[in-house]
Amino acid sequence: QELRPKSLDIKQEELGDMVEKEMASTSEAIEDAVRRIEEMMSQARNESSGVKLEVNERILNSCTDLMKAIRLLVLTSTNLQKEIVESGRGAATTQEFYAKNSRWTEGLISASKAVGWGATQLVESADRVVLHTGKYEELIVCSHEIAASTAQLVAASKVKAEKSSKNLLRLQECSRNVNEMAANVVASTKSGQEQIEEKDTMDFSGMSLIKLKKEEMETQVKVLELEKRLEGERVRLGELRKQHYALAGTYDTTEDGEVKPAPAPRRGILKKPPLAQKP
């Protein structure tokens, strides 16, 4: 009992219901994301024009394609899970199968939650970008997060699947399609950002020599400030990842609260080291 993950706060007999609920919740989140993107598209057409409208349409279209790819992947993953349960449970009930394979079931629940959360975050980031209150970088990070979470779902689904399963082949194809659509979101976001920035090109032709020198010094100060901030954020990212691994069980925590890597598992029987020869 002590060795079980601390994050597990549900009983094993409830795991089966949790899988079905989480997969249904993920599907609903994706459907809602598609509807919200369509609403944003209509709003963008009414409130923007020219280059901004072109950029917004391209980004939102790529987000819609990504959501459709994720929806198909979740559906295929659900079919594969049903196939796995039916072929592996024997005389046991579905609930007993999930309870018996609790670690696998927990992986499915975690992966499903990650996919639904990623889809929601992507839509919220796209909404802020269209309203010019968000950053293009948020969309790029969300796209990478979705690709990672769908890969987690595929990995969790294929653990117990037969290699010859048609549903497994479909799932792997869906995963490749999701990665491709996520890359399209990143590409359309980067090109849109460049297009907007080119539209607002800086013009220094009307500045005097003194004004140019002042602007140059102020820009150098900003560069130094950003470099210092970047270094601080990298340190923060490292600490966040370390804590993430600690919660996931990759690291051990000492009595003083210090996080250190967990000892590697021993392989085989350790041999006694040879005795040192006397001089």
From TrEMBL:
The keyword Glycoprotein is annotated on this UniProt entry: no
Cite the InterPro entries for this sequence: I/LWEQ_dom_sf, ILWEQ_dom, Sla2_fam
GO CC entries: clathrin-coated vesicle; cortical actin cytoskeleton
Mainly resides where? cytoplasm
Segments forming a coiled coil: 207-243
Alphabetical keyword list: Coiled coil, Cytoplasm
Residue ranges of every copy of the I/LWEQ domain listed in the record: 7-248
* Annotated segments matching region Disordered: 250-279
What are the recorded GO MF terms, alphabetically? Answer: actin filament binding; clathrin adaptor activity; clathrin light chain binding; phosphatidylinositol-3,4-bisphosphate binding; phosphatidylinositol-3,5-bisphosphate binding
Q: Where in the cell is it found?
A: Cytoplasm
Q: Which PANTHER family match?
A: HUNTINGTIN INTERACTING PROTEIN 1, HUNTINGTIN-INTERACTING PROTEIN 1-RELATED PROTEIN
Q: What name appears for this protein in its UniProt entry?
A: HIP1R protein
- In its UniProt entry, the species of origin is given as Ramphastos sulfuratus
The gene is: Hip1r
